[in-house]
Specification:
Length: 220
Amino acid sequence: MIAELSKDDIKDCLSNYTVRYVTAYLEARGQMKGIPEEYRPSEKSPAIKDTGWWMDEELDAIYGPPSEAEKQKRQDRDSQRKAQREALAHRLVFQVRFSKESAKRYRSYDVITDEGMGGGRIAEKQLHAQDNYLVFDGDTPISANQHRYVTVETEKDETLVFTITHPVTPSPSDWSGWQKADYVLKDAMDKFALLQGGKPKSVVPNVSDVPELRFKVVKE
C-alpha cells in the first residue's frame, strides 16, 4: 500500500501525522475527517518524521538534500544525544562474599538488566580474603535501566538472585550494605525472565545467610 503512495503523499504523512493522530484514527476505524487540532504536531507530540525513528539518509531520500539550517539542527541534535549518553554512563561495582567453607560451591555470576545479560566464572584464584570471608569483585557498565540484578549460580544449577536497588537514572553512590539474595531459582534457565523484569517460575525462598552482596555506582 505504501508503495502506491506518491512521494508528496509520503511527505505529507510524515510531516503532518503524529503517533497520537494515527492511534486515534485507528481507534475511530477511519471515521475521522482531517486532522483535529489536538492531534497536530507540537513540541510534546512531534510529527512522525521528527520522532527519531528515521535515519537522516532515509529522510533525505524523501525530502531531498538537507538545508544548511537542517544540517545545523542535526549537528545540535547529535551533540545533545552524545552528551545525554555520556551523562548516563556509569559503572556498577559489586562484591560478593562467601564463607570460606562454601566458596567452592559457587561457579558463575551474571549481571542482568533490561539491556542484556553478561557474566563469567567465579574462579578460586579471583577470590581474596576479607575478614572471615572470601570475596569476589565484579563490575559492569550501566545506563538508564528499569531493573538490575546480579545472579550467582551454584554447582547444583541453583541461581541466587540479588536485586540491585538503584534509581533508573544512575548516579554515583557509596557502598550499599551487605544484602542476602532475594530468592533462589531452582531452574537456572528461569533467570532469562529477569531480562524483562518478570517473576521467574521456579522461585523458592532463600534461607542462607551467605553469600552476600554489596554494590556501589561510579561515573564512567
